Amino acid sequence: MCGIVGYIGQKEAFPIIIEGLKRLEYRGYDSAGVALFDGNNLNVCKTKGKVADLEEKVNKSIPTHGNIGIGHTRWATHGVPNDVNAHPHYSNSGDLVIIHNGIIENYESLRKELTARGYEFTSDTDTEVLVNLIEDVKLKENLKLGKAVQVALNQVIGAYAIAVFDKNKPDEIVIARLGSPLAVGVGDNEFFIASDASPFIEYTKNAIYLEDEEMAIIRANKDIKIRKIKDDSLVDPYVQELQMNLEQIEKGGFDHFMLKEIYEQPSAIRDTYRGRLLVKEGIVKMAGINDNIERFLNADRIIVVACGTSWHAGLVAEYIFEDIARIPVEVEYASEFRYRNPVITNKDVVIAISQSGETADTLAAIKLAKSHGAFVFGVCNVVGSSIARETHAGAYTHAGPEIGVASTKAFTTQITVLTLIALKLAKIKGEISLPEFRHHLQELELIPEKVQKALESEDHIKMIANKYKDVRNCLYLGRGYNFPVALEGALKLKEISYIHAEGYPAAEMKHGPIALIDENMPVVVIATKKGHYEKIVSNIEEIKARQGKIIAVVTEGDTNVQRLADYVIEVPETLECLSPLLTTIPLQLLSYHIAVLLDKNVDQPRNLAKSVTVE
Question: Are residues 85 and 154 in the same domain?
Answer without folding.
Answer: yes
